[in-house]
């Protein structure tokens, strides 16, 4: 059954404004059921968490429902799902907590393909604790992150291997299960940045071998909130800094302060929405999510092939090298034009595409592009249409001709 793009788009009121969105990698539009769920909490009797009265019990259930929803999305245990304001804040929290036991000579492995939120916290904590940072390099000619290098990078002193499930700059999907197997064989933990990957494919944290998997709801049609999933048994061994009166239970001990109940209700609604993207999907919510996100992956892949082929066919457009098997994200430059100028030119035509380094600092530094503006990024999301792609390509064709 073909993906029903008209039905998918109907869930996003903001699309009625007429912009062409290639910017979901920075933050997707919010689905209408999510906005409705958030509004209901803001306008209803929801108090802080308490067993004593109904509005307090509603808050408790909102939190529990959000944990169950994210667990279904990721194939995780709800008792190990923690929430935070962003993937960056959660990663810093976990890094500080894990690194508390590091000794001089311990090692952490990071990747130059990653978003800086899965690099800098580990690098900074290593410097603080006297640990050594070891770098996994990507191949600039192909955009691949070779797995074999990890055999030499991981050793008996490795404490954490941090790696992305998909590059937010070029979409590369490293072989996370193979990397995780090497890390676990050495007794190391694996921290996976799933922010870019989660919206575009089914996720199974156990199959990935992720000890920690972080994702941001605002990248998959939800509110500005992030979640990190881990085995609750592992979390029991970790003790973050916290206020004395706050709960010491897992996962609450990792959540600093009172959460946004409205945003958590939005998280649940976003997961429910993702589970409906294939109307033929049946079974449990987890089963419907797997079916729907597989349909999303196939739909996006078809559009993305047309986008990449079209960009490659424009004289003057230079693509950042990337493997064919990747998330639907491409970075490019238009001739000698500064990427910010290209982004503004597209923006003047109602086409939304970011320019810069998108916090993929190490990637663009390695490619020698960061100081000159990075690149322009175009991503496919499940509300993107073939017409959107053609409008983007035609705008670039026209600009390329004018520059000649």
UniProtKB/TrEMBL annotation:
Xref: Gene3D superfamilies: Aspartate Aminotransferase, domain 1 (3.90.1150.10), Type I PLP-dependent aspartate aminotransferase-like (Major domain) (3.40.640.10)
Pfam families xrefs: Aminotran_5
Domain of life, per lineage: Bacteria
Every Aminotransferase class V domain range: 22-392
PANTHER family, alphabetized: CYSTEINE DESULFURASE, PYRIDOXAL PHOSPHATE (PLP)-DEPENDENT ASPARTATE AMINOTRANSFERASE SUPERFAMILY
Protein name (database record): Cysteine desulfurase-like protein
């Amino acid at each position: 059954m073909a993906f029903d793009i008209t039905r998918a788009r109907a869930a996003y009121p903001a699309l009625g404004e007429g912009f062409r969105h290639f910017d979901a990698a920075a933050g997707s539009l919010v689905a209408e059921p999510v906005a409705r769920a958030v509004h209901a909490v803001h306008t209803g009797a929801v108090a802080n968490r308490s067993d004593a009265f109904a509005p307090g019990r509603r808050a408790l259930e909102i939190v529990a429902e959000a944990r169950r929803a994210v667990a279904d999305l990721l194939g995780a245990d709800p008792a190990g799902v923690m929430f935070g304001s962003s993937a960056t804040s959660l990663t810093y929290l976990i890094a500080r907590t894990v690194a508390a036991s590091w000794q001089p000579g311990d090692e952490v492995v990071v990747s130059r393909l990653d978003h800086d939120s899965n690099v800098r916290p580990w690098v900074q904590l290593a410097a603080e604790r006297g640990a050594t940072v070891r770098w996994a390099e990507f191949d600039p000619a192909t955009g691949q992150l070779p797995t074999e290098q990890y055999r030499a990078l991981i050793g008996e002193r490795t404490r954490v291997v941090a790696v992305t499930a998909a590059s937010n700059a070029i979409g590369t999907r490293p072989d996370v299960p193979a990397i995780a197997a090497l890390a676990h064989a050495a007794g190391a933990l694996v921290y996976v940045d799933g922010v870019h990957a989660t919206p575009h494919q089914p996720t199974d944290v156990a199959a990935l071998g992720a000890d920690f998997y972080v994702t941001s709801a605002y990248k998959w049609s939800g509110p500005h909130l992030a979640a990190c999933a881990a085995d609750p048994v592992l979390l029991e061994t970790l003790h973050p800094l916290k206020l004395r009166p706050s709960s010491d239970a897992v996962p609450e001990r990792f959540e600093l302060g009172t959460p946004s109940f409205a945003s958590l209700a939005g998280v649940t609604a976003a997961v429910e929405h993702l589970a409906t993207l294939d109307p033929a999907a049946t079974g449990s919510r987890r089963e419907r999510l797997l079916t729907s996100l597989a349909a999303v992956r196939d739909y996006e892949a078809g559009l993305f092939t047309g986008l990449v082929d079209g960009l490659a066919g424009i004289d003057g457009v230079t693509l950042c090298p990337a493997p064919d098997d990747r998330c639907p994200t491409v970075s490019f430059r238009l001739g000698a034009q500064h990427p910010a100028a290209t982004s503004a030119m597209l923006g003047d035509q109602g086409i939304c595409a970011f320019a810069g380094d998108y916090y993929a600092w190490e990637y663009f530094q390695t490619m020698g592009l960061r100081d000159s503006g990075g690149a322009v990024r175009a991503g496919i999301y499940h509300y993107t249409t073939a017409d959107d792609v053609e409008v983007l390509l035609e705008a670039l064709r026209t600009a390329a001709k004018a520059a000649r």
